[in-house]
Amino acid sequence: MWRGDEEIHLTVTEFSLLRCLITNVGRVVTRARILDHMWQYNFDGESAVIETFISSLRKKIDRSGPKLIHTVRGVGYCIRDV
């Protein structure tokens, strides 16, 4: 994947997470929806797996430009319409 002139290498899981967010640009994607979409996981409200992958993804894609992934506290994540 590319962001501007920088090539960014993502794992399959990171790419899937980014795709989930991008296909919902401008809308908040809940943690439950992310878990269900990516891992077919029944959300119990305590899983830290999403935060781990969001953090990794942010380190890779947000280092060379404006912040793309935004946290909506207590709800989920979004990529705001630019």
Would you mind describing this structure in some detail?
The chain has one domain: Arc Repressor Mutant, subunit A. The chain is globular and about 40 Å long. By secondary structure, the chain is α+β, with helices and mostly antiparallel strands. It has helices at 12-22, 31-39, 49-61, and strands at 2-3, 6-7, 29-30, 69-72, 76-79. The model has no long low-confidence stretch (mean pLDDT 86).
Task: Give the helices and strands, then pairings.
Layout lengths: L1 E2 L2 E2 L4 H11 L6 E2 H9 L9 H13 L7 E4 L3 E4 L3
Antiparallel strand pairs: 1-2, 3-5, 4-5
Helix pairs in contact: 1-3
Quick summary of this structure?
By secondary structure, this protein is of the alpha+beta class. 40% of the residues lie in helices and 17% in strands.
What structural class is derived from the secondary structure elements? alpha+beta
Mean pLDDT metric: 86
Give me the CATH architecture, please: Orthogonal Bundle
Q: Uncertain segments of ≥5 residues (pLDDT<50)?
A: none
For the report, how would you describe the main beta sheet? 3 strands, antiparallel
Assign the CATH class. Answer: Mainly Alpha
Task: Summarize this structure as a short list of keywords or feature phrases.
single chain, 82 residues, alpha+beta, Arc Repressor Mutant, subunit A, three-stranded antiparallel sheet, 5 strands, globular
